[in-house]
Amino acid sequence: MGIWSASVRIDIAVTNDELTEVELKSDRDTLDMQPLEADLYGRVFDKLELVVGAKHLEKALKLLPAWWSVTVVTQHGSELALQV
After folding, report:
1. How far apart are CA 50 and CA 71, in angstroms?
2. Low-confidence residues of the chain, pLDDT below 50?
3. The whole model's pTM is what?
4. Out of 6, 21, 40, 79, which residue is the most buried by the measure of CB atoms under 10 Å away?
5. Which long-range contacts (CB under 8 A, 24 or more apart) does 39-43 make?
């Protein structure tokens, strides 16, 4: 789903009592667009969450406003672990 004339695309949008966006960034992705996405998503959504691979955690925490939720995904053998 694109917003702002499709200049950025949303990975997951959830509507309930509020509008939530979940952005997914695997270790194979880059965070190059994250500052622009954070700005534009923040104009539209009530809640924002970034789900990242461990590779991006430190950089993501520096790039995002404090009101974003960040969840890191790590792999242990065949299992995935999520930590907010």
Report:
1. 6
2. none
3. 0.84
4. 21
5. 40/3, 40/4, 40/7, 40/8, 41/3, 41/8, 41/10, 43/4
